[in-house]
Amino acid sequence: MINGSGELISTARMDQRVEVFLEGEKIAETTDAIVLFEAGYEPVIYIPKNDVSNIDLLKTGDYECPHKGHAELYTILHGAREFENAAWTYDEPFT
Questions:
Q1: Cα–Cα distance measured from residue 19 to residue 69, given in angstroms and rounded to the nearest whole number
Q2: Range with the lowest mean pLDDT among 2-11, 30-39, 75-84?
Q3: Which residue in 7, 18, 58, 84 has the most C-beta neighbors within 10 A?
Q4: Comparing 55 with 94, which gets the higher pLDDT?
Q5: Which pLDDT score, from 0 to 100, does residue 8 have?
Q6: Alpha carbon distance 86, 58 (integer Å)
């Protein structure tokens, strides 16, 4: 797909299990991950919110990406620590 700025964006379903660890604790595991490839950036792996556990998410803001759509930004609360703007969602990304 080519976005509004003429840059190439593509996504692909991953066929392997993806696990995410924070401070040594598994906070997510999925077989439904999607990898996003965007020109000029490293690939980014997106996982379903339902596959995240053992953390609390505190919504900290909104962001409008001209290429991917509306994003909600979250701070991850894990134990006594906060990881500011460490997670985001695109509930209705541009296709």
A1: 26
A2: 2-11
A3: 18
A4: 55
A5: 82
A6: 10
Here the tokens at position 60 are 């900290």
Spatial separation of the C-alpha atoms in residues 80 and 72, rounded to whole Å? 23
Q: For residue 85, which of 61, 49, 55, 51 has the smallest C-alpha distance?
A: 61
In the block, residue with structure tokens 């392997």: 16
Residues 6+ apart with CB under 8 A from 32: 13, 47, 48, 51
CB 46 within 8 A of CB 33: yes
Two structure tokens written together for 95: 């296709």
Can you give the C-alpha Rg of the chain in angstroms?
A: 14
Question: Quick check: helix, strand or coil at residue 51?
Answer: helix
